[in-house]
Amino acid sequence: MTELFDLSHSLSAPLFKKARYPWDVLSDLTEFLARGPRLLGFRETAPSVWIHESARIAPTACISGPAVIGRGAEIRHCAFLRGSVLVGDGAVVGNSTELKNCILFDEVQVPHYNYVGDSVLGFRAHMGAGAVTSNVKGDRSPVTVHLPGMDIPTGRKKLGALIGDGAEIGCGTVLNPGTVLGRGCRIYPQLSVRGYVPGGCILKESGTAALKIEKNFSDPLDKTCVSGV
Fold first, then answer.
1. Is the overall model pTM greater than 0.85, yes or no?
2. Can you give the CATH number for the domain in which 105 is found?
3. Residue 67 falls within a domain, yes or no?
């Protein structure tokens, strides 16, 4: 859990602390958000929609509960929050972006035409314009998360991506069901990504059998990178 996320940067920390796997938090998210944040500065603007007084919400945005919008967050023109959404402090949800059953840690940016469903985005993660999570397999079977040396059945029909702190996803990229991106990884634009990308790495090419990964030199101490996934 802590290999992907700094839990001090989200109100959802209590959910993660009792979960076995990161995706387990999505099953409890609706009930958790419906209780509302027990913090000063939040007001309930609609049933189970809690917005901090410092957040900026465009009049054309549509927010369905349960939802919590954190301090200084910005929800821009025509954003669509379909319910069970936690938007962290300072996060940006951009024009025509759609969110559903997901957690955005503090300072996440999904600023242009993004879809994020059944996913978790860590602190300061960023999705480029048009990048989306795909949360349902074509055959509608339960999603399996593929990690080095192990496959973990999630039992979930819907699961998007688990995106570690500081990850950068290039424009137009598709993150396939159950994708896991490590902290600080970089994904080139227009890729179809599946499986696991280690933290501190750069992914430059799509592929179903092997993904070419090169070292992200901004993180020279990370020894987890491999030649393929």
1. yes
2. 2.160.10.10
3. yes
